[in-house]
Amino acid sequence: MSQEGWWCRMVVLLVATLGLIAAAALAFWPSRDERAEPDRAATATETGHAEPTAPSSLEGVLTSQLIAGEITRSQYLRAQEQIAARDEERHPMNVPWDDAHS
Predict the structure, then answer these.
(1) Predicted TM-score (pTM) of this structure
(2) How far apart are CA 45 and CA 52, in angstroms?
(3) Are 63 and 55 in contact (CB under 8 A)?
(4) Is the pLDDT of residue 100 over 90?
(5) Comparing 77 with 42, which gets the higher pLDDT?
(6) What is the rounded distance in angstroms from the CA atom of residue 59 to the CA atom of residue 86?
(7) C-alpha to C-alpha distance for 13 and 70, rounded to whole angstroms
(8) Cβ atoms within 10 A of the Cβ of 66, count?
(9) Is-contact 73 66, C-beta < 8 A?
(10) Each residue of 71-95: b (16+ CB within 10 Å) or e?
(11) Are 62 and 78 in contact (CB under 8 A)?
(12) How far from chain centre, in Å, is Cα 6?
């Protein structure tokens, strides 16, 4: 291999590497919209308080009430049992019969 061919390959490899680095940097660079709105997670860690969010399920409401101390552990467990019983009543599991055990 000639000395000139080796340099040519190295230049092509260098240009390709720099192009890939530039493409990766542009892909992960924050857009103008992302820079305008502060990061909620970073804001929460700076202040030490998480932003309150509304739970999307009954279980989430119960969990937030338990954490806030609005209900006791036994009240929480009783409510979870009632939810499970209601779900079982509304959507019972249909277990197919096994021919060997009938």
Answers:
(1) 0.42
(2) 13
(3) yes
(4) no
(5) 77
(6) 13
(7) 64
(8) 17
(9) yes
(10) beeeebeebeeeeeeeeeeeeeeee
(11) no
(12) 48
